[in-house]
Amino acid sequence: MTLPVPPDTSALFRYVLRLGDLSLVLGQRLGEWVGHAPALEEDLGLANVALDLIGQARLLLSYAGEIEGRGRGEDDIAFLREHGEYLNPVLVEQPNGDFGQTILRQVLIDAFQLELYQRMMASTDQRLAEIAAKSVKEVRYHLRYSSGWLVRLGDGTADSHARVEKALESLWPYTVELFAEDELDRTMADQGVAPRLSEVKMAWLERIDEILSEATLRRPPDRSHAWHGKRGQHSEHLGYILAEMQHLQRTYPGARW
Amino acid sequence: MNLAPAPLDAERVRRAWTVLASVEDPEIPALSIVDLGLIRSVKPQPGGTLEVGLSPTYIGCPATEVIRRSVEDALRSADLGAFAITHVLSPPWTSDWITAEGRRKLESYGIVPPEHGASSMRDVLRQARPVGCPRCHSTDTECLSEFGSTPCKALHRCRSCLEPFEYFKCI
């Protein structure tokens, strides 16, 4: 009798952290806009998107804790890990810049999450399929919001156009990492847990091109990249986010309210 | 410990639904959580525990915890015996689950109920039909903000009567 091969829980754990950390770090970044956005409506808009992202992170990091099986909960994983243990792509930790840059980053990530989660609804991992189905509804709305703004800014005044054009130039190179398939991405795709990144990229590019063209912007060429946030090698920006986010738990370990 | 005999299952389930229908949504008190379609099931388990399936509306909605506590309080004070609340993620809650009664209550509260057909891609494409004004019924309206006072609403304005109004988002 042959025993069934046990699923590789350590790979699944790392993969779920990648998804969860993307949502957590971007949610934290967007939260920085609260009280500072150009208008009350956008303050509310960015805060609402941040809330949804933190909600995704809670589901994913709780699940990661269960997979790991060492009794860590969502808060332990969110607040008590070190810099190199975060597995988010470097794009989401980039500073907010001006409103245009925040909106552009949001379009890039919203479209990525949309294409990823739409396909992950068919994941062989039932829990991920459920989280994807729940998240995709909200992500659709996020993209409606962010792409609506990008079109207004790109096809707006000379100043707003120049600002989002500059943001596109500076953020585009970071998108390469989203689709740079490594061993973990391949393992997850082979097991049917996650879609192939090449497939996600094709759909993503099509959607991005459509939005950029409506916003009268042109997609910059892909450049080689040296970012490995998905493996825990981050830009200097993540440290500052963590210092702020983890301050309370590190100063008063286990504090609850 | 309560040693009184538990009421018959069917009666317990019926009473639980009645009790749940009186639990207000903390953000839109005109509606109950049953009107919103948040209660997915009420089932007696073999051990006698009443299992109540509760769905969150938005993943990050701050009201979710409050709703859970209100459900616990309501069930406890109704003396329905042991119960357990389970978090139902799948299938995900959709605004299509708001009951006809819920839609009517939303409308009379001044909030435009969501369009049907939440799973379509219309929202991403920004092609949703114009939302009619709840006061003068004009369809000459505009969206002021995709996000309103709660995660589930957007802010619109009527160009005919010039009044702002809220729209329950379609997800």
Question: How would you describe this protein?
Answer:
- The complex is a heterodimer of chains A (257) and B (171).
- With 257 residues, chain A is mainly alpha-helical.
- Chain A has a single domain (9-216, 229-251), classed as Ferritin, core subunit, four-helix bundle (Ferritin, Up-down Bundle).
- Chain A has helices at 9-31, 40-68, 74-79, 99-120, 126-154, 158-179, 183-190, 197-214, 237-251.
- In chain A, helix 4 packs across helix 8.
- Chain A is globular, with a radius of gyration of 18 Å.
- Helix content of chain B is 21%, strand content 20%.
- Chain B has two domains: 9-87, GMP Synthetase, Chain A, domain 3, CATH 3.30.300; 111-168, no CATH class.
- Chain B contains three helices and seven strands; from the N terminus they run H-E-E-H-E-H-E-E-E-E.
- Chain B is elongated.
- With 171 residues, chain B is α/β, with parallel strands linked by helices.
- In chain B, strand 1 (39-44) and strand 2 (50-54) form a beta hairpin.
- The model of chain B has no long low-confidence stretch (mean pLDDT 88).
- Chain B starts with 8 loop residues before the first helix and ends with a strand.
- Chain B has helices spanning 9-20, 63-77, 100-108; strands spanning 39-44, 50-54, 83-87, 111-112, 141-145, 153-158, 164-168.
End-to-end Cα distance of chain A, whole Å, is 53 Å
Indicate the radius of gyration of chain A in whole angstroms: 18 Å
Mean pLDDT of chain A: 94
Task: Please report the distance between the alpha carbons of the first and last residues of chain B.
Answer: 44 Å
Largest sheet of chain A: none
Q: Tell me what the CATH architecture of the largest domain in chain B is.
A: 2-Layer Sandwich
Stretches of chain B where pLDDT is under 50 for at least 5 consecutive residues are none
Helical proportion of chain B, percent range = 10-25%
* CATH class identity of the largest domain in chain B: Alpha Beta
Helix and strand content put the structural class of chain B at: alpha/beta
Structural class of chain A comes to mainly alpha
The number of strands of chain B is 7
The CATH architecture of chain A is Up-down Bundle
